[in-house]
Amino acid sequence: MTAELERIEEQLRRSFEGEAWHGPAVLETLAGVSHEDAAAHPIEGAHSISELVLHLSSDYELVLRRLTGDGRQLTKEEDWPPPPEATEEAWVETVERLRRLSLELRGAVRAFPSELLDDPLAPSAPYAAYTQFSGITQHDLYHAGQIAILKRALQRRDRWAISRHWRGVSKRERADAYIAHLQAETFPALTRIPGFVRASILKRELDRGTEFQIVTVWRSREAIQAFSGPDLEAAVVPAVVRDMMVEFDERVRHYEVVAAVETARGT
To answer: Is there a common fold for 3-157 and 161-257?
Structure first.
């Protein structure tokens, strides 16, 4: 391997793993990102961290494909693949796949004939090999900066929340069934929505039945809409729950959480 190839491979490593002069590299910006945060969209209209990581992998795959002589451009679906389900296992695999592709490309660079650096990787490819290889470092750092911005937005988002309140009065004999429905059906579904924080069931006995207040806390309006649909204030009351109720709200109320206090653990 020539000195020039060594320098290219070193820049690829620095931009991806660390020791880049400008600041955090790709893996350093991804450190500490949970699968919930990776799937979130804290900036309206912007890609999520998960989407950016998949896009980075696509760029590595493009250059590796061109190393085989295949000069095809990426399709839109290849360039920005849809993210998998927002689970910890899927997120770990998404990052690990990007890591594997980085190692594969760096190995290919080390084995690349240096006399061909000024030639295209494939006949129909628009750039020389040198431009393609160095372009990966630029692409990595560009999107690492976007990931850093998204992480800051997530930190700001976590300082506030929205509390959603719904009220209903169940038939007294159906109160236990309603609680069981919430615990077995509604709450597990809520936990799968990125941006959901917690839920509480409040109840009291009235002459006409058992009154419930269901309070859920969310990180954003976007997260709530993943549950409610486009109409943010529409109550989500499935038919099975309607049958349990004497009366219920068709509209919910939202409050901004501006402060909270808890007793310290262990006291």
So the answer is: no
Q: What is the pLDDT of residues 199-219, one digit of tens each?
A: 999 999 999 999 999 999 998
**Token match 């490593």: residue?**
13
Q: What stretches in the chain show pLDDT beneath 70?
A: 156-160, 260-267
* CATH class name, domain 3-157: mainly alpha
pLDDT of res. 160: 64
> What CATH code is assigned to 161-257?
3.30.70.100
Domain residue ranges in the chain: 3-157, 161-257
